[in-house]
Amino acid sequence: MDKILKTAESWLSDFFDAATKKEVQHLIDTDKEELKDRFYKQMEFGTGGMRGMMGAGTNRINKYTLGKSTQGLSNYLKKSYAGEDLKVVIAYDCRHNSDTLARTVAEVFSANGIKVYLFSELRTTPELSFAVRHLKCHAGIVLTASHNPPEYNGYKVYWTDGCQIVPPQDGEIIAEINSLSFEDIQFSANNSLIELIDKEVDDAFIKASVAKGSFNAAGKDDFKIVFTSLHGTSITAIPEVLKQAGYNNVTIIEEQAKPDGAFPTVKSPNPEEPEALSMAVAKAEKIGADMVVGTDPDSDRLGIAVRNLEGKMEIVNGNQAMVLMTKFLLEKRKEKGFKGNEFIATTIVSTPMMEAMAKAYGVEFKTALTGFKWIGKMIKDYPESLFLGGGEESFGYMVGDFVRDKDAVTSTLLACEIASQAKANGSSFYKELIDCYVAYGFYKEHLVALTKKGISGAEEIKQLLIDFKENPVNTVAGSKVKWIEDYNTSIAKNVLTNEEKVIHLPKSNVLIYETEDGTRVAARPSGTEPKVKFYISTNTKLPSAEDYNRVNSLLDAKIKTILAELKLS
Fold this sequence. Notes:
By secondary structure, this protein is an alpha/beta fold. The chain has 17 helices and 24 strands. Strands 17, 18, 19, 20, 21, 22, 23 and 24 form an 8-stranded antiparallel beta sheet that branches. A hairpin with a 3-residue loop joins β15 and β16. The two termini are 37 Å apart.
């Protein structure tokens, strides 16, 4: 505690502003536990950049932690592009303090002689990724905490290719940041280097989104959409994209249309949570809409609800949406003619159905660690290959490579194209998904996320994962465990034959059990939240669409058995 107190007391120097010093002194005087949580470590980069609660402290998002990161990034840019006129672009979302923090970041870059394009108002994360290459910038920053609770904010770094930074580059940048003291931050802005941007980039992004996500679907005049931005940034893009693509029957949930970092109408602005879409689903039932789409605050994740076989609105999960979107893109590419260099991609904790589908179409399938930065890296690493589309189970999808991160804007349009065309053909989004199960196997997934906050929570998460590894299960729902994939050691072992394979992915704290019948159970800590996540995937054959309800019930029962066995229910 002495070390933590010493670190906290260093924030009482004259370098820090009066409000920060007052906040830190109050914690020293009154709340040692909170002080400990705020100063026991430095804010770190995870799968989605740097993300955490706002407030004073080294383990919080504030002008100093972001300023230090920006100073380190400025130094790194100067070393990486010596002699060049450096340019960066900055966007921010609806969260509390995002606008002022974005301005602070812009000022630090400008103080280092770097040209800054700063969006004049909040914009989506996919538009920021697009803008990096559109404006020929060396890097991009978006101030966002994605779907985290209101007290969070964050800082994501994009490189010249419009993709988030990955190893070894992220480590090099972190080393540069860690070599600095807070007093090294240059806060004195050169305002002549800060240029506000908006409509020109907006128009280019929206035009590109319509071009990439539109496939001349039939039936648009008869297709009703309910859209909610969940108080976030997508209100700046999705309504216009849908309009330009020909969708005129769009009902916007006005109570959730105004950007608001308090997210007053939802418990969590996360479209993975059914409650977040409840207002939109109720509206859809009332007006007889065909589809609901809701996006998270920075508009990289989308939740979709469509009418099921009984005609009721049902939320489809990220795996299901990803499968159907990818199937549609594969089919469209097939109509043009495959050239042999196409690939689709997903992550190691997402549905194995993606690989089954790739095999059926004869295209390459690539898998990555969790996080879209790894899928973006594939596009960079294989320039001779054509990325059609791909996603991950956490409600994110990317259509082509014009945006190098998950993109709820273009994906929303793609989902509407699929559903509108299906309805015009006498089918539906839901029925098309069932047809995929018949063709490629019925894969059903389930996620358990356990929240463990603070220092003790971090230790608990660490121990849970150690226990999961050191006390391996032998069977899952009656099927023998065949493979144990340990991404910490980069070894996949067949426990039935002792065969070992090298995992050719970066090391990561992930452990996956796979049984003889293809059931998979994965565990990993979240890179963006104080959570440990368990991913369950089951599968079986679906003889026909008429067997769907029966087989669906069987897989549901199997998942319940697995949850009970792993004490996760």
